[in-house]
Amino acid sequence: MTVVTWDSFHAAEHFTMRNARLLDRHRFDFLFRAGPAENVRAALAAYRNIDGGYGNSLDPDLRGHASQPVAVELALRLLDELGPFSRPHTAGICRYLTSVGNPDGGLPAVLPGVRHTEAAPWYQRTHDFGSRLDTTAMITGYLHKHQITHPWRDTATAYCWKNIDGLKWTDPHQAIALCNFLQHVPDRQRALETLHRLTTRIRAVIDVHPRATGHVHTPLDLAEHPDHIARRLFTDDEIERNFQAFEEQQRSDGGWDACWDHWDTAATIEREGMRTIQRLRILRNYGRIQVDLPRPRREAPAD
Fold it and tell me: What Cα–Cα distance (Å) separates residue 297 from each residue in 31, 79, 116, 281?
């Protein structure tokens, strides 16, 4: 069985503390060293805007200060690592989502103002600001997981089901978001039936070949822990081969490549820190880290 040894874990820790931004250093401390969650929350709060959304380069590919839906998606993913959501906090997030949502109940990935700020080319070239199933499904899934009730969540859930039911094809980002939605939405029978129906389409856009290079998404990017709904989409051999690739792909400096389209040096370095933590989280979730690490203390924030 492939495992992360003390030396490789220690190298990853040194890489993170040398190169990652402060937010991700605090995340590493919380996730692997039993550090305080409040340090992560305080660092994350610096990216939040008065409108309840997030911006200010929280997403490395969006360097502007304005709030963007995909930055909110990332913020919820990071808050989910810490434990239960704060209801006053998420009330502000839901107000923001309501303010930028489209009439059909969905969200765009970014707003038109992105064209006038420093951002990755694929965002600056955006001309269609219609609803995106990937962004909407990922955010809605986290709200369901933490039992955050709000009219926007219910409208967005209806949007997701409608578009999932009519789905003819998908892409890796959307597949990851769909699996997050199906993992947490309350209607479990419908979720399982839908996953079964979409299995072939999801597998078609995931790189099960463990040594594929470039901007690729692996089975473990969907099934980040063995109990995840997406785990059943892949064989034990496919999962094992991808763990072997994880071990081989760790660089001599302890980090993992960003596995992202490069457009800006700062963005790439930040994504490498995020990717390194993600890899370690997945490895520990599957019991692949040899080091006896303390478990994070997940507690609800003080409201």
Answer: 8, 13, 41, 15
Q: Judge whether 30 and 22 are in contact, CB under 8 Å.
A: no
Whether the CB-CB separation of 139 and 157 falls below 8 Å is answered with no
| 73 touches 108 (CB < 8 A) | no
pLDDT tens profile 79-111:
999 999 998 999 999 999 999 999 999 999 999
HEC-encoded secondary structure of 186-201 = CCHHHHHHHHHHHHHH
Please tell me what DSSP assigns to residue 95: H
| SS3 labels along 47-61 | CECCCCCECCCCCCC
Tens digit of each residue's pLDDT (9 = 90 or more) over 207-262: 887 666 666 789 999 999 999 999 999 999 999 999 999 889 999 999 999 988 89
Answering whether pTM is above 0.90, one says yes
Backbone φ and ψ for 63, nearest 5 degrees, come out as -90, -10
